[in-house]
Amino acid sequence: MINQIVVRIAAERIMNGGLNPKTNQVYVIEDVTNEDYRVAVEDYILANTEGI
Predict the structure, then answer these.
(1) Is residue 14 within a helix (H) or strand (E), and if so which, with residue range?
(2) Around 47, how many Cα atoms within 13 Å sit in the side-chain half-sphere?
(3) 14 with 26: CB under 8 angstroms?
(4) Does 52 map to a domain?
(5) For residue 13, is pLDDT > 70?
(6) Residue 18 in contact with residue 41, Cβ under 8 Å?
(7) Is pLDDT at 52 greater than 90 in this prediction?
(8) Which of 7, 15, 19, 27 could cross-link to 40 by cystine, CB 3.0-4.6 Å?
């Protein structure tokens, strides 16, 4: 089961250039290693990005 709060937090960090707390570098989609969460984060980004 995917936690939508975790998805939103990860997606917002990726979209806003936030830091990955694990690596202390800019959060990128490749940092999401769980395939189900990666798909959910990608879907969230697509749904919440204007012009796509």
Answers:
(1) helix 4-16
(2) 10
(3) no
(4) no
(5) yes
(6) no
(7) no
(8) 7
Structural domain boundaries enclosing 28: 4-47
Number of domains in the chain: 1
| Distance from C-alpha of 27 to C-alpha of 50, rounded to nearest angstrom | 20
Decide if 23 contacts 33 (C-beta within 8 A).
Answer: no
Backbone angles phi, psi at 19, to 5 degrees: -90, 145
Tokens of 20: 């990955």
Amino acid at residue number 34: N
Backbone conformation region of residue 51, classed left if phi is above 0, alpha if psi is from -120 to 50, else beta: left
Structure tokens at 15: 């979209």
Q: Which amino acid is at 8?
A: R
